[in-house]
Write a structure and sequence with these properties.
The complex is a heterodimer of chains A (161) and B (793).
Chain A lengths: L1 E7 L2 E7 L5 H8 L18 E4 L2 E4 L12 E3 L13 H8 L9 H14 L5 H7 L11 H10 L5 H4 L2
Parallel strand pairs in A: 1-5
Antiparallel strand pairs in A: 1-2, 3-4, 3-5
Helix pairs in contact in A: 2-5
Chain B lengths: L15 H5 L15 E7 L5 E7 L1 H4 L4 E5 L36 E2 L5 E7 L2 H9 L2 E6 L6 H4 L15 E7 L4 H9 L3 E9 L2 E2 L7 E7 L4 E6 L4 H13 L6 E4 L15 H13 L3 E4 L2 H7 L2 E2 L2 E9 L5 E13 L26 E10 L13 H19 L3 H8 L6 E2 L5 E2 L4 H11 L5 H10 L3 E10 L7 H6 L8 E7 L5 E5 L8 H13 L6 E4 L17 H27 L7 E4 L2 E4 L5 E3 H9 L14 E6 L8 E10 L6 E11 L6 H20 L31 E3 L19 H20 L13 H9 L7
Parallel strand pairs in B: 1-13, 11-12, 16-17, 22-23, 29-30
Antiparallel strand pairs in B: 1-5, 2-4, 2-6, 3-5, 7-17, 8-15, 9-14, 10-11, 10-13, 15-16, 18-19, 20-28, 21-22, 21-27, 24-25, 25-26, 28-29
Helix pairs in contact in B: 9-18, 14-15, 15-16, 17-18
The chains are: A alpha+beta (161), B alpha+beta (793).
The complex binds FE2/S2 (inorganic) cluster (FES) (2 copies).
One FE2/S2 (inorganic) cluster binds next to loops of chain A.
Amino acid sequence: MNRIELKVNGKTVSGEVEGRTLLVDFLRQTLRLTGTHVGCDTSQCGACTIHMNGMPVKSCSVLAAEADGAEVTTIEGMANADGSLNTMQQAFQDFHGLQCGFCTPGMVMAATALLRENPKPSEGEIRHYLEGNICRCTGYHNIVKAIQAASGQDVTPVAAE
Amino acid sequence: MPKDGGIGASTKRREDVRFLSGTGQYTDDINLHGQAHAYFLRSDVAHGTINGIDTEAAEAMPGVLKVFTAKDFEGVGGVPCGWQVTDRFGEVMQEPKHPVLAEGRVRHVGDPIAVVVAETLAQARDAAEAIVPDISDLPAVVDLKAALEDGAQKVHEELKSNLCYDWGFVEDNRDAVDEAIRNAHHVTTLELRNNRLIANPMEPRVAVGDYNRANDEHTLYTTSQNPHVIRLLMGAFVLGIPEHKLRVVAPDVGGGFGAKIYHYAEEAFCTFAAKALGRPVKWTSSRSEAFMSDAHGRDHVTKIELALDKDNNFTALRTETYANMGAYLSTFAPSIPTWLHGTLMAGNYKTPLIYVNVKAVFTNTVPVDAYRGAGRPEATYQLERVVDQAARELGVSPIELRRQNFITEFPYATPVAVEYDTGDYHATMDKLLEMTDHAGFEARAAESKKNGKLRGFGLAHYIEACGIAPSNLVGQLGARAGLYESATVRVNATGSISVMTGSHSHGQGHETTFAQVISEMIGIDANQVDIIHGDTGRGPMGMGTYGSRSIAVGGSAMVRAAEKVINKAKKIAAHLMEASEGDIELKDGKFSVAGTDKEVAWGDVTLAAYVPHNYPLEDIEPGLEETAFYDPANFTYPSGAYGCEVEVDPETGKVEIVGFAAADDFGNVINPMIVEGQVHGGLAQGIGQALMENCAYDADGQLISASYMDYAMPRSSDLPMFKVDHSCVTPCTHNPLGVKGCGEAGAIGSPPAVVNAVLDALNRGGHKVAHIDMPTSPARVWAAMNKTPMAAE
Ligand code: FES
Ligand code: FES
């Protein structure tokens, strides 16, 4: 067992983990932060995407022990200080970028990271960036629109489709 | 302009707030005090005899509570099938037992052999590795036609053969159809495969069983589209638990697409083991397990023949299909290639004579059942392919050939036993051609050619049948269930409303749309209305969500219950205003007396119902809560025209979708934003089937496409932006909202549109290709263009 200490959504947390414990299991089981989801066992689906030290990572492919000392943000840490949805979350609601909601936390985390790297992405850039996040419900159309809208781009031509 | 929050408004979804902030509650998010973890050891061979299972070493491993095998399930029922098909000779289908854990034989890769329950999942998994099953291989039955040959290895020793049933529909038409085809001016024939798919909702299945010794009550939390159906099937047929002692809860469910309709062995196991061990027992499927244990979809091999007269009128249609059932009969499997497929073979066309033959076959593969569309995509695909091919053979426009044969008068009784109540197929076709700028196609094709690409346009016109009903009819067809829906509308004293619906939302947004309907009917703010679903402990017996039935059947039940509430409330209002009941009107949340300025607010009436001081107690009971069970008179028949434009790279065979448009007639629409989202999602799945997805087994019955590395899920970069429209409206004539359902349309209409587009591109490019099977992968397209045989997959 290893003792780890890290910052999750701004709070310092610690716990004992086995060497093989995945970060996603530590978040879900130990911290009961169940907003981060597990959709596969081959690091393909992106449902588990979180931010670690500011970078998007698939938390199913990181050992909890590797996150010792890290700063982690999960979907639970994304809302505005008053608890309201932040710009990206709100855009997903406004443009119906989610249906069952299972891929959604990973999508929001990935999309947020994208806008940090590329504040005004084109449709093609968004689609390319999201290749590691599978959504089975939406056909991606409204996810792309939501991200463009969250980046301050005009989506009326798309919306009219 | 629809009222915000009322019918027709694109109201934002209330459920999104919890999903977007990570506070949704999916089944795997449930952790009960003292819960143990189950891990299933599954067969890695397709077919074999179990000589023994040595669990001793595993039982001794740390944390292990018990290792279960089939012998622990002696006296427990098998997983039942909910539909019995009668074949064309009047015999009922062959129905093998489906044990919870494999008994004596394993019959597909993934068949559960044993289950370890341990303190932690890691311990359970470790212990499973120490189980030594002694299994001797048997030949695997994989190919559908070979499975029916004389002397073929049987999947079930106790059955006569691997044939589940040989179904003919309409059997009385058989000879007339044969004759019409013999005498036809022209017959177009295609042989095609509807590729096997895996539904792949992003949330894997989960089951948590709990048992309360104090009151002998069982609770199962499960990822289900229909918790009441699970309660009935599991309680009555598998475990023998009466319904009042069994509660089934399906909380937030992360997509279903059919795969979460069925009762699965893991649900029964966790419920059973929780009592046996006196501990809650949780099982969470890994994605790898999901590939080999979730029911698969489609997998039909079909020959279709379309006969035409000299004026290109369709005169007869004959199809012969081999449908894969897999190793056992999943809950609704027998109904998919029969009643959900054969009844749709008329499509949008007035073909007078139709005969459908379906041979359902057992193989050593995962059970096959409904996947988004269920039978209707299989019907639409073969029909819309053969119509396109006929147009090519006859040198006529595929648009005009369709138009010429469209049904234009309603109601229309098809020769395959259903009656379309309403529709306007020319309208959706017109709309589609406008949306796709069909007039500009040739110029775009010329542009593509300059860039070395082949451009093609393909279209499909589909009909769907949603809300399968009425119950007395489906009973005659073999359903072992009713197909009504229920709702309770509970008005609280201060006027807010809780609706308990038997429909289940796993992405469809019922919490929003159902509230819009109630808000519209009563005139109160939608925020005053809560929609409750997914818990047998809270609402009346309901049948759940599949087959695009929620708004058409569940919505109708809710409307009926709300009407009863309103009628009673009017009586109370009449009493309060000392007026006659017939003069009471309800508008904007106020009751008024016609022709006067007397009015009383909704909240005053509801309060009077629960504080009945000034109340007609001699005429009506206090309280304001009503339940309705709605059994539809007919199916609903959405229809639409879908158009796909592709560019094919002749060097590589790669197909790129450069435009996709869908013109649907869903009848009335409650929330356009949600309807469009449903179409987008269906299109993605249909395009996925046509271009990339394929569930493949090798000759030994090994599942080759068993992870997201081998099963090609459509990703964001594989799909275009879609153009969708639902402005062509012919309201359903027999339900109170005039709605038809929209959940499956996208997945039904899109595969033939894509394949037709690919073939159009190839034929325009000078390649005389009649057909390419799905998925139209670069390798297949390239091979078709170059007339080279495909290497084995
Ligand atoms: S769960 Fe991490 S990528 Fe699928
Ligand atoms: S919203 Fe269901 S998987 Fe994306």
